[in-house]
Fold this sequence. Notes:
Blueprint (H helix, E strand, L loop, with lengths): L2 H8 L21 H18 L13 E6 L5 H12 L3 E6 L11 H10 L4 E6 L4 H7 L5 E7 L5 H15 L6 E5 L6 H12 L3 E5 L7 H5 L5 E4 L2 E7 L3 H4 L5 E4 L15 H8 L3 H4 L7 E3 L12 H4 L6 H20 L8
Parallel strand pairs: 1-2, 1-3, 3-4, 5-6, 5-9, 6-8, 9-10
Antiparallel strand pairs: 7-8
Amino acid sequence: MSTKIEAQELKEKDPMYSLGRKHVLDLDDFSSEELETIFSSADAMAEVMSRDIKKVPSLRGKIIMTLFYEPSTRTRVSFEQAGKVLSADVINLAASASSSTKGESLINTTRTLEAMGADVVVVRHPHSGAPYLMARYCDRLRVINAGDGRHAHPTQGLVDLYTVRQHLGDVSGKKVVIVGDITHSRVARSNLWGLLAMGARVTLSGPATMIPMDLLENSGTYSKNNNKGIGDIEIDTNLDRAIDSADIVMALRLQLERQELSLFPTIREYCKYWQVNETRLAKAKQNVLVMHPGPINEGIEITSAVAHGIHSRIKDQVKNGVAIRMALLQELLLPKTGDDV
């Protein structure tokens, strides 16, 4: 069964909750209205984070469990902080210390967490589709995908979209250039779906060996209709040409472990043709936003001068990670009639 069909089946409508869904597995089935619901809630959460006392009782009595089978700093810590600011009980589980090391299946782990009374499990897993599998065996427990294999990273996609919205307002019609290892980037995939839903024009750039074959063969033919317009995809392996008149430039982490696959000749050659540097950035719009989902290999996919320059919004992405994850937790767990923060 395809993930798209599974996502549709797992999107259980519940009029009591603003999102109208039980799980957050990817952004490929989010409407622009749903995205705006999350962003509006995130605005309120950002206000909470600006207070001297960063604490509200919204999720008091709720239990949030994080289950990470891969290393993480930004995502795991931001979910933990988000839960604690909302007064939830947050329990961090390390896969290395869980019963999975004794052979327990992911399905049984899911059933165990639900039996223990958890309300939400935030999961990161090296295998694509793992959060979907967990969601199929949940009754009351809600699943948030914090990254699965090379498939999706919806919460990071929401963080990036929210950061763009903060600085540019309406994303419809804006030119967004995503450069790097598109094939192996779960962040790129989730960003792509979210940007298309909001009507952006997305250009993917990087070595041809790092761009999915189906996109290379069908460049410019994909569009997603929504009430804000049509978002479309273009492919241009020439970054100097792709970056021209860009509103947003997002560099992806060059996964150095992929070098063993010989997807590009050398780091030096990658830097020569696809590094986001000051010379290339000058070809974009004057008020261009520079983004990177992290972690960053400074001096490789992006220069230090650009990463920390006047156009960089990387720190805002990190800061917004808490507000967005607070918004998601609240929208998933609180009925519409729940108390406002």
